[in-house]
């Protein structure tokens, strides 16, 4: 992946209000070209709303989204022409075969040839079943057909909302394999949402975490932190060993008490500053221990506040 390439998607100060409720709050985020990008958040955090705006099903209240530099506000047609998406359930005619469904969509997309249909069918591994009726397909096969359809016009960006929902482990593995192949072999950027961190960890190069409509973290999973978290600003998680855990918790925003210690996520500089303040207040700190958390632990810690539901 070329890390210097211009981002495929740029969210800039995107806010969505419905009535008096702010669903998405000032989202600014870059999606690098050619990666599998995970959009992770608990239920109700705003993933679907963001995706609906990204694929043009809903307009932001303020802010803008650019797709390959084209604004969805001022150049909607050009911006959206670069996107293929499955949002909610893909519309399929169950009484027709997979192939007939693809032909139907191909007729609506200029320039899609029979060769292209064969290519996408092959790519998603639907070959043996494409001449069968969709009514006989498993959920996984319907989803492959949905992805094949979304890829027909060679989009630069493929957007999938919670694509692993309802798939069995084998289906999830296959989906993961072909999404990764799509980004690696064809340079297509894949934007995929989920509330399941374990899947994101295996599937994605980068994960953005959203909670309560706000971006809380962006993490590059196979190496250095992204631009959102420069090395000096990177948050680390540490355990303050102390017999006054509540006092430490009261001092450090976003921390939580666990047994006789307090777990906090902060930059290195802030951890040193908090420690100095604790010493000044006469709180005995016996140790500050870096925690090697799994992304799962970090995700739970980041989304702990506000009593959100995890499943
Ligand atoms: N049309 C609407 N009117 C009022 N509130 C809405 C509307 N659409 C979404 N919301 C609220 O916005 C918040 C975010 O919803 P959204 O569906 O984007 O979240 P999500 O992260 O996709 O969650 P899930 O995984 O459960 O679908 C939720 O609290 C939801 O109730």
UniProtKB/TrEMBL annotation:
Has keyword NAD? no
Q: Which SMART domains match?
A: AAA
Q: Which domain of life is it from?
A: Bacteria
Q: Does the keyword Acetylation apply?
A: no
A Pfam match is: ABC_tran
Q: Where is the ABC transporter domain?
A: 9-237
Provide a Gene Ontology MF annotation, just one.
ATP binding
Keywords, A to Z, come to: ATP-binding, Nucleotide-binding, Transport
User: Belongs to which family?
Assistant: Belongs to the ABC transporter superfamily.
Protein name stated in the entry: ABC transporter ATP-binding protein
Taxonomic lineage of the native organism: Bacteria, Bacillati, Bacillota, Bacilli, Bacillales
């Amino acid at each position: 992946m070329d890390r210097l390439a211009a981002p495929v998607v740029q969210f800039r100060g995107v806010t969505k209000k419905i009535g008096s409720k702010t669903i998405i709050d000032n989202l600014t985020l870059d999606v690098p070209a050619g990666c599998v990008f995970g959009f992770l958040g608990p239920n109700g955090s705003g993933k679907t709303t963001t995706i609906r705006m990204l694929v043009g099903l809903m307009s932001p209240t303020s802010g803008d989204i650019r797709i390959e530099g084209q604004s969805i506000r001022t150049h909607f047609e050009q911006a959206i022409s670069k996107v293929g998406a499955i949002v909610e359930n893909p519309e399929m005619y169950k009484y027709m075969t997979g192939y007939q469904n693809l032909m139907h969509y191909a007729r609506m997309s200029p320039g899609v040839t029979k060769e292209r249909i064969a290519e996408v069918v092959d790519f998603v591994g639907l070959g043996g079943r494409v001449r069968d009726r969709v009514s006989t397909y498993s959920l996984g096969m319907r989803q492959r057909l949905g992805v094949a359809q979304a890829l027909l016009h060679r989009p630069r960006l493929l957007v999938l909302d919670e694509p692993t929902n309802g798939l069995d482990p084998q289906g999830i593995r296959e989906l993961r394999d072909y999404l990764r192949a799509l980004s690696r072999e064809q340079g297509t950027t894949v934007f995929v949402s989920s509330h399941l961190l374990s899947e994101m960890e295996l599937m994605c190069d980068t994960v953005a975490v959203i909670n309560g409509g706000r971006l809380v973290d962006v993490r590059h999973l196979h190496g250095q932190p992204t631009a959102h978290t420069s090395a000096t600003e990177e948050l680390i998680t540490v355990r303050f060993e102390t017999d006054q855990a509540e006092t430490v918790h009261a001092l450090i925003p976003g921390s939580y008490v666990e047994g006789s210690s307090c777990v906090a996520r902060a930059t290195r500089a802030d951890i040193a500053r908090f420690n100095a303040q604790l010493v000044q207040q006469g709180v005995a700190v016996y140790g500050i221990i870096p925690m090697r958390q799994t992304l799962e632990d970090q995700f739970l810690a980041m989304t702990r506040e506000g009593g959100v539901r995890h499943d």
